[in-house]
């Protein structure tokens, strides 16, 4: 009996110990389970909030598209779609800022402790458990008590990297991919002068004027933070990037003079790239010593060398990516699988931007010249279906990204938490931007007209001055860094500049065209002259531009086009006889299979059949409707005739086709006659 009693006591003690241990273990598990439930609820609430924020932007774009249709249907030209998107963004921003308040979470705890720096990540020890917190940004002293109420405003404020890595690449690539190279090369010298010299002149004029304005603001005691000369130059660089999307859309709709269109479009495409590299070079200006804002010759030369190095490296990277894509699409059978072909083209084009940024170059420059290279070479290797797909895909992405950015501009005016509006700085910025644009256009136009026979008319200069709108690139550069007082003031002023130029200058484009008596209704795909005098003037322009690209044209047409595309003359005819095996190896069997397909936007005419002469510099290949090819000698001045008498010029799939003249008609005598389809 005693042994049995002892055994029972031992069993009771063991059971009691087990129960105590289980209870002690169950308590943390219950607490952990409750914490997991709370965490899951917060994650679900955050997910719903993020979905609502994205839905706001989708509804903004939907409303913008419907209103655009209404404007196009009613033929309203006083407001472009981008200005409309900004208005809708402003309205939604007002509602989010003043109409919606998120209730304060009673569980939020605000503690303060002195820290000498602001680390990007904090580990907080709460009762032996470590939690990770990330830095969202600086908060003003008056906003400390309103942090929970501003949570929605913070969520609709995107990371600036979203603009650079997601929204900007399709916009810049589409600009290069849709570039009309025939009109671009006709005015290449003037475009390069406006884009490079003009942007630098504008940057320094605006920077110097703004430095004087800032000095005046300091003297009257209206400046609450540091604002150095390098900050003024940086501001001049970012606002020198023009984006006349509104004006160009109206130009395209009204069919304004092709030379004016080419000058404006070419300048806006290239000066965006120049402004990005120029702003990066100014940021990299680091003189020796404690004061990083003093002037030093070596530091300035180093920044200038960085400008040249970054721009040339980005240019080479973009062209190399385009050439690699052209080689892959030519020497593979991807054209048999159109979906794979389009996907490769899309990924290679987008990766150019990211590759340049990862290598320390500028993605904007790289993706721009990648688009130009893709349009010049790779486009000719794509199947007809992929050609249509790539054009429509990047056109759609450009439309959505551009309208999204302009909608976000309007939203940011009320949702951004650190605006600094200084009236004197704003007025000075408007005056400086106007004078900087004038210092760009008028002096350069005067110098260019000294060497041009086809002068840039005064009314063209006034229109270019008026059309210097600021847009997506200026906004993206200004929002990328808003950490300091100077950058916050720049960002707020830049928003007002964009609003004014898009609404006032963009909305007044039609009236400005009428005021300057600029001719409209000119087909952009035809020559803009019908009289003998105008025809001779245009031919002189062709001869003027020939010295810029005559050597390049011969090299590209005779060697690069046959190597990288399915068009152009056979290499067996252009390479020396000693290179015969190499020429036969590089010559694609599909070199002529697409000659009767439609080329890109550089096509002048479309032929379905008939007898055509294909002039390849030193030889002429003739083809008839049956597709048979014969070759023979050609005159040595074929290229000169092409450059001079381009009224009778055709361009199909990158190959220049010269129409045979009818025996009953004297060649090149009637300047009023044009080829009809």
Write a brief caption for the model.
InterPro entries: Cation/H_exchanger_CPA1, Cation/H_exchanger_TM, NaH_exchanger, NHE-6/7/9. By secondary structure, this protein is mainly alpha-helical. Helix content is 64%, strand content 5%.
Give descriptors for this structure.
677 residues; mainly alpha; Na+/H+ antiporter like fold; 5-stranded antiparallel sheet; globular; disordered C terminus; endosome; Sodium/hydrogen exchanger; sodium; antiport
Q: Describe it for me?
A:
It is a multi-pass membrane protein. Among the domains are: 1-26 and 39-76; 160-287 and 300-523, Na+/H+ antiporter like fold (Up-down Bundle), CATH 1.20.1530; 566-595, no CATH class. The protein is built from 22 helices and seven strands. The protein has helices at 2-74, 81-99, 151-155, 160-177, 181-186, 188-219, 229-238, 245-254, 258-283, 297-330, 338-358, 363-381, 384-415, 423-451, 458-466, 472-479, 485-507, 509-516, 532-564, 571-574, 580-586, 638-644, and strands at 121-126, 129-134, 612-616, 619-623, 629-633, 649-652, 655-658. It has a five-stranded antiparallel sheet, with no helix packed on it. A two-stranded antiparallel sheet has the order 1-2. Helix 9 (258-283) crosses helix 10 and helix 16 packs antiparallel against helix 17 (485-507). Mean pLDDT is 75; it is low at 527-546 and 591-677.
